[in-house]
Amino acid sequence: MDVQEKTYEEKLAEFEARIARGEKIEPGDWMPDEYRKQLIRMIGQHAHSEIVGMLPEGKWIPHAPGFRRKLTLIAKVQDEAGHGQLLYRAAETLGKSRGEMLEELLDGKAKYSNVFNYPTPTWADVGMIGWLVDGAAVVNQRMIAKCSYGPYARAMKRICFEESFHIKQGQDLLIKMVNGTEEQKQMAQESLNRWWYPTLMMLGMPDSDSPHLGKLKRWGVKVKTNDELRQEFVDLVAPQLKSVDLHPPDDDLHYDEETGHWKFTEPDYDELKRVIKGDGPCNKERMEARRKAHEEGRWVREALAVSKRKKEVPAA
Amino acid sequence: MNDTQLPIWEVFHQEKRGAPHVHVGAVHASDEEMALRMAKEQFARRLECVSLWVVREEHVVRTNYDDPFFFARNTDKRYREVHGFPAPLKGKHSE
Ligand SMILES: [Fe+2]
Ligand SMILES: [Fe+2]
Prior knowledge:
The complex is a heterodimer. Chain A is an all-alpha fold. Chain A has 13 helices and 2 strands. Chain A has a single domain (about 10-305), classed as Up-down Bundle (Ferritin). Chain A is globular. Chain B has a 3-stranded antiparallel sheet with strand order 2-1-3. Chain B has 1 helix and 3 strands; from the N terminus they run ββαβ.
């Protein structure tokens, strides 16, 4: 039996059977081109989101109220840089280099999460990003940890472990504010008003607008649909927020005894499309900041490139 | 111009003395020292760690998932295993 002689249909059948058995696909395995491209696109966008995601909250590092909050925020932002690197590496195992992906990001050709194109005018936004944005990210990433591509699923396990700290620090920060002065409480509520719908959008277009969903599910690229993830997220955070007297800006938000789920108003998906395409409140600012950082880091990369000293590393 | 594509190093992480080094992922680095430092930042930031190994990716020799023969066990190899022998006597040897 020679593997080369199998037809495309036979290989595809084996590939789908492996996924149906719950086995992972590993680098070097045969896979349909469409599967490879879809994953490169998804993992690349995910990586870019981690990198750009450092900007809205990173700008608060110099202004953090107190040393402990500052250390916490630095640690969180460093985690996001690490997530970006883990993800670029996972995408590389499918045949696209990190250099190529970074170039696409800097050239403005790559997409990343809508949610990082919104402004962070107050300190409460740092907490809201932790609670809501990292909260939605975890709902999504817990699903990806079960996806069919081994390196992506493995990276997610590590990332989810760190995300729980991100959520915790955000909740802690906001609960302090809610129990503070009237002004602080109002600042927290206004931040929720700003972030609620962008976070709901973050989980993607509605299922009715996802033409390839069937195949993505069969191939284990998606294990749940966007609408399922969004419902899971609302069911999780709506009661949490209400328990500390924070109220999402949705008059129709209520618990439905019959279904056991929270009913909510869908976000404006046209806004999502616009922001993803580059026309959000901060897209330009984010890309400029990223390019500036890239330029300012050039001397470091040049220094690293020439420091290829041979050094003895003790053997095992 | 692309100056961001550094060589890839596979990273092996040992949680405590006596534990095996386990593959945890990879980093990009220009030399051994940078690879170890990146590995420490990436994989030993939270988890306990007493030792890290980094190995240039191209130095790792791999089997092929598609090779149907490499791991095939088509002869009876029970003579290599404990359950290939009749019922044991009472009492266990220490492991
Ligand atoms: Fe992250
Ligand atoms: Fe995070």
